[in-house]
Amino acid sequence: MLISGLTAIACLERQARVHPGDRVLVQAAAGATGTACVQLALHHGATVFGTASTEAQLEHL
Hints:
CATH class: Alpha Beta
InterPro entries: NAD(P)-bd_dom_sf (IPR036291), Zn-ADH-like_protein (IPR051397)
Radius of gyration: 11 Å
Order of helices and strands: HEHEH
Number of helices: 3
Structural class: alpha+beta
Strand order of the largest sheet: 1-2
Helix content: 40-55%
Number of domains: 1
C-alpha cells in the first residue's frame, strides 16, 4: 500500500496539482493505486470519475 500511496501523491499532488473543483478521471479506480488516487483526489475536493473492468469492482467504487 505504501507504493500505491506514494504513486498517488506523485501523480495528483506533484504532477497534476489537483485543487478543489477539479474533475479527475481515474482508470482502474478499484485497484490499489486507483483507490489511493480516488481518496487523495476526494481529499483535495475534486470530483472523481472512476472506471473499472467488472461489475464487482464498480460496486466497490
